[in-house]
Design a protein that fits this description.
alpha/beta; Rossmann fold; 5 helices; binds guanosine-5'-triphosphate; binds magnesium ion
C-alpha cells in the first residue's frame, strides 16, 4: 500500500514522466489535459501552477492526497512557487527535483526548500535514478510487532 501523491509544477517539468517511472512504465511524452487520478498518483496539468485562479484549485485537490509533491526541473530558470507556501495545505509537502541529468540540482533544491519543503528528492525519470527512494517514502510500512 502506498500513500497517495499529487504532483504539481510548471508545464514540462516532468510530472507525467515521473508518474510513468513510479509505475514502472516506459516514459513516453503525453501532454496532461486534465487532472488524472490512479490508485496512488494524481497528475496535474502544468497550467494549474501557471494560472493564479487554477492555482487555488490545486490547494483543494491537495486534500485528495496524502502527500503533495512540488516539482522543479534541475534546468529550470526560475521557480513558480513563492517562499513558505507549504503551510497552505495540511498535508506533508515534499520537493522533487526532476531532470537531474540536465543540470546541477542544487539551485532547484534551494528554491524548493525556500518554499518550505523539508524533504527534497532528486530524480531522473528516464533512467530511474532516485525513483526507489521516492517510492520508499510513500510506502505505508507495517508496524513492527
Ligand atoms: N532529460 C530528461 N528529460 C525528462 C525527464 N523527465 C521528463 N523529461 C522530458 O520532459 C518533457 C516533459 O515531460 P512531461 O512529463 O510531459 O512534463 P509535465 O510536467 O507532465 O508537463 P504538462 O503535462 O504539460 O504539465 C518530456 O519530453 C520528457 O521526456 C528527465 O528526468 N530527464
Ligand atoms: Mg503532464
Amino acid at each position: 500500500m502506498r500513500k497517495k501523491l499529487i504532483l504539481m509544477g510548471r508545464s514540462g517539468c516532468g510530472k507525467t514522466s515521473l508518474t510513468q517511472a513510479l509505475r514502472g512504465e516506459t516514459v513516453t511524452y503525453l501532454k496532461t489535459q486534465a487532472i488524472a487520478y490512479d490508485n496512488f498518483l494524481i497528475d496535474t496539468p502544468g497550467e494549474y501552477c501557471e494560472n493564479h485562479d487554477l492555482g487555488a484549485a490545486l490547494c483543494l485537490y491537495a486534500y485528495e492526497a496524502d502527500v503533495v509533491g512540488l516539482l522543479i526541473a534541475a534546468d529550470d530558470d526560475y521557480s513558480l512557487f513563492p517562499p513558505c507556501i507549504t503551510c497552505l495545505v495540511n498535508r506533508e509537502v515534499i520537493g522533487i527535483v526532476t531532470k537531474i541529468d540536465k543540470a546541477d540540482p542544487c539551485r532547484a533544491e534551494n528554491w524548493l526548500r525556500l518554499s518550505g519543503c523539508e524533504t527534497v528528492f532528486h530524480v531522473n525519470s528516464l533512467t530511474g535514478e532516485g525513483i526507489p527512494a521516492l517510492l520508499d517514502h510513500i510506502e505505508i510500512k507495517e508496524k513492527q510487532q
